[in-house]
Amino acid sequence: MVVNARSVTPIMKRRVTADLPDIHTFPSSSTSSSSIRAAPFRVRVIEFLRKHAASPPPSSLSPKLMCLQVLLRIGEAEDQVVVGLDVVEEEVARSSRSVYCDQCRVVGWSGHPVCAKRYHIIIKSDEVSIGGSIKPCIKCGNEVHLSEPRCKSCNHVMTAEDVEDWVYAQLDDTSHLLHGVIHSNGYGHLLRVNGREGGSKVLSGFHIMDFWDRLCRYLGVRKVSVMDVSKKFGLEYRLLHAIARGHPWYGDWGYDFGTGSFGLTLETYKASVEMLSKMPLSMFICQGRKPRTRVQDLILFYQSLSEHELVNVRDLFSFMMSLVHDAPKVSASADGISKKRKVSSGTLCAWTNGDIKRVEDAMFRVLRAVSGSGWVSWRTLRGAVCKVGPPELLDYCLKDLAGKQAGNGLLVQVRCHPGSGALEYRLEPAASLLLENSSSSAPPISNCPMREHLIADMRLLYESLLHPQTMIAFGPEARRDLALSAATKLLDCKQFVKDYNPDASFLDAELPSTFLFCQLVLLDHSEEYSTNPPPELIVLSPNATIKDLKAEASKAFQEVYLVFKGFQVDELLDYGVADETTPVKLLIRSPGTVFVRGKWTMRNGLGRFRMERGLERWTVDCPCGAVDDDGERMLACDACGIWQHTRCAGIPDFDTVPARFVCYGCRVSGKVPKTSGDSTHGIMTSDVAVHIGRSKGGGSSNGVGGGSCRVGGKILAEQLDVR
Fold first, then answer.
1. Is the pTM of this model over 0.70?
2. 447: buried, middle or exposed (CB in 10 Å: 19+, 13-18, 0-12)?
3. pLDDT tens digits, residue range 479-494?
């Protein structure tokens, strides 16, 4: 972001002064006054930028976008890193992109009027800030400082449109560590979080979410939605985390079920989580006299590793995720371990205690044969006893060898080689080993598999036990059908919302001001288009009158929403006879709610800002129960024009839609499509219509083909790749 005449990169190592705020504690409510903490978002965000953000040079200003930056630090002293928090203030009415918000449309806020401003909150992952003072010339590609009016190489004159196009391109970048957008009414969307797996070198996803959560609280954000399409270890994390922890990953910060695709409800979501989580592992293990499968071996293996009994699916995945979190990473060159050493799927079920003891005794003999204090590498020890047992048994015994008693007062000591990281073994007297361990600060060697092996095992178990497309056959068929349905529903639940409830923050402000929530009741407008926006908080002085209340309420709605640009409050419901000079505190108790009425003009094209859903008029009535756009792929009936999901119409997610389509209701009633066509399309339409209301399968949408089709889920999910 351009902050002055010198270039500032969002992430760069250098020594910084101590006055830069720490990203792990910034922003803090203690840094703001009581009056600001009690103000609504539209006031707090302006004060935040005025206090903390650096102003851009005149050359970077544009009528559509204002680019600001807040510099933050990570770490202390010599290890400090500077992070740039970029804020782009977008004037929606002048935007060259769509004025409507796709995220609002699919999360259930499509009835909100279009807000006047959007605030993009961004931390970039590379070394070029959004409004950075250097950008490439659109003609020759050479770097141009934004304070310069033209390119020195090709003499191209830099215009405001050039800067705006470049900034818009940066807003669409998918590599940001953090990208959130907040509307001027305080409703926002978390578009992207990329932690270490997403390319961050200095911030984990946990740290980024902590910062985002603190910032939203500080700014008085009202609600934030997130479309959880993130993947971890290549697995759909919303399904894996829900099973292991009972809620999505974002639930650690208070994000709850928002809206479910295909008509799913909160009760359905909770029931699906409970059903899958409580499935007993015995259902997958007990298979009579059939040979044990790899999945069964893995379940028994991790049951043997756990100090606590693993009874159900939640126990298993929760234990494995904790192992992955604590497991060390081994480089690919470390004695060939990561490439050649693998934790086998064979487990205790195939071996007797005698088998394990025989292999361990052989390993003890090899270690006794080593004279002095020499160490034996994992590869050498395994090769020396390779004929004593199968490879799977050898791997298991090697992982569990640390601390074993080898007789004559000797215990097995295990370490990672300082240079290669390879595991090494030797025997030492028990007394000296215990003394050394008690005085050593080095972490103990774990007997669990390495991280890459744990991830591979968890991926196999996830695909076999949880994912509906690859779930193995088990137990009663009816129980498996319930599990398939529950897993599909969990994957269909992508929208999660956090309610920050900032309206309660003024209760702790201890200010004499009057706090009122103004709920707008519209007049003289068609019910088909009109919708009451969320109430706006206004703060009045203790001696404010009814006239002051009307003026402040009018100003609030004018500032927040484009459609209310000329709005004026005419009356207060329930207080219509009150004189305008009457003090507010005599009529309304603070905090309180007041309903206001008013009129405004729709001239100058303001009508297009009525709702975030846009000017389109559509009706959704799907057999699954959906009555609004939920972001999944839909198509409209050519006879009645009503929209429904392609999946619910019997069209697989990866198939193209037919050129003409008639819904089941119109087919039964004999309605004729509004457009004519040949008989071939009519037969295709009829075949499709027969399946409406009976198809229950699922997957995410992908692609469009044929006629009228609305695509939301897949395309929007690609835009909101939150990791």
1. yes
2. middle
3. 999 999 999 999 999 9
